[in-house]
Amino acid sequence: MKKRLPASTIKKELNHILEQFHLLENDQLKNAAVVLFGKDTLVHYPQCELRMARFKDTTRHEFLDSDLSHGNLFYLLEEGELFAKRHISVAAKITAESFRRVETPQIPYDVVREALINGLCHRDYSLRGGSVGLAFYSNRIEILSSGGLQSGMTIKQIKKGYSNPRNKRIAFVLHQCGYIEHWGRGIEEMIKGCVTAGLSEPTFENETMEFKVIFPLAEQGVETTKEASFNLPADLSAKQQDIMSALIKQKGNPMKLKELQEFLGNRYPERTLRRELNTLKEKGLIARSGHTNKVVWFVKE
Questions:
Q1: Which long-range contacts (CB under 8 A, 24 or more apart) does 182-190 make?
Q2: Which of 91, 107, 163, 174 could form a disulfide with 184 if both were Cys (CB 3.0 to 4.6 A apart)?
Q3: How far is the C-alpha of 117 from the C-alpha of 259, rounded, in Å?
Q4: Does domain 232-299 have CATH number 3.40.190.150?
Q5: pLDDT the model gives residue 291
Q6: With a threshold of 0.85, does the pTM exceed it?
Q7: Positive or negative, the Cα torsion across 72, 179, 175, 135?
Q8: How many CB atoms lie under 10 A from the CB of residue 253?
Q9: What residue ranges of the chain have pLDDT lower than 70?
Q10: Element (H, E) at 48
Q11: DSSP assignment, residue 237?
Q12: CB under 8 Å to 72, separation ≥6 — which residues?
C-alpha cells in the first residue's frame, strides 16, 4: 500500500503530528488518539477489543480455537491478521507447465483484512461493552462490529460507495497511512475480491447494535496443503499455535531459533520462543536436532 505521509513527518514534534491528524485540541487528546495509538487501553477503553474464534462446524457450540486481544487499532489489526492466516485453509496443486506447487487460499487474505479494517475503523466506540469479532465457521467467515450503520444509511448505499464515516478522525489517519485507499471503496473491494476468486459475494447484515459481514466459503477442490490438514491440539496457547503454524509452513525445512524468530516477525523474545518450543517438544509435536548454535526445530511426522 502506498503511504501518504511525507518522510519529514516523523521529524516533527509529537504534538504537531497529533494536531495534523486532528487528534489534539487545546492540548487535550481526542478519544480517537487513544483508539489509534494508546498503549494501555483496557482500563479506560475496554471497548478496544477484538474477539477471535474458530468453531468446529456451522454453529457456536464447539470451539477449536479462540483468542481475545485488547489494544490500539493497529495492534488489533495485526492480531486479527495473524489469526486469519492461521485459519484460512490453503489448497495446492502441481502445475503441468512448471511442475511447481501453486497455493490458493480458501479466500483472499486481502478481502478479510479489508473487512477487518472497516470493522475497526467504523464501529461505534461509544459502546463500552462493544468490540469487533472475527469468527471462522466451517462454511463461512463473519466479521462483526458494534453499532449498526449510522442513521439514514443503508446497505444498498454503502455497496454503491456512499461514505459518511462515523469516526472521521480515525478514518482520516488510516487514509493518510495508506490503510484505506479510497473513500467508500472498502465494500466494493471486498465484493470484487470475492468474485475474482470465484467465490460468492459477501452478504451484509445491519442491526441496531451490530453490523456484520459474512463471507461464504467454498469447499476446496484441490489437495490441501499439510498446514491446512494438520490438526493442532485444542489446549495450545495462541503463541504455541503461532509457532506451530510457522513450523508447519516450513515443513521439510528445519529452522534455527533465529530463523524462526525472524519468520514470526520478531514478535516474541528469544527466551519466550525457546520456552514455548521446549513445551511443544514435551507435547510431542515438534523435535530438534543438532547441538549448540546449530540446533534446528521441525514438526514431527
A1: 184/158, 185/161, 186/114, 186/115, 186/117, 186/118, 187/118, 187/158, 187/159, 187/161, 188/159, 188/161, 189/110, 189/111, 189/114, 190/111, 190/114, 190/115
A2: 163
A3: 30
A4: no
A5: 78
A6: no
A7: negative
A8: 10
A9: 1-12, 92-103, 182-183, 219-232, 250-252, 301
A10: none
A11: -
A12: 34, 35, 36, 37, 38, 39, 41, 48
Contact present, 77 and 117 (Cβ < 8 Å): yes
Residues of the chain with CATH 1.10.10.10: 232-299
pLDDT at 40: 84
The CATH 3.30.565.60 portion of the chain extends over: 7-216
Q: Which three cell numbers stand for residue 71?
A: 489494544
Residue 184 burial by Cβ neighbours in a 10 Å radius (0-12, 13-18, 19+): middle
Q: How far is CA 227 from the centre of its chain?
A: 18
Q: What is the pLDDT of residue 79?
A: 93
Among residues 50, 209, 208, 45, the alpha carbon closest in space to that of 116 is found at: 50
Please enumerate in sequence order all residues whose Cβ is within 8 A of that of 105, keeping only pairs 6 or more positions apart, or say none.
88, 89, 90, 91
Note the CATH architecture for domain 7-216. 2-Layer Sandwich (3.30)
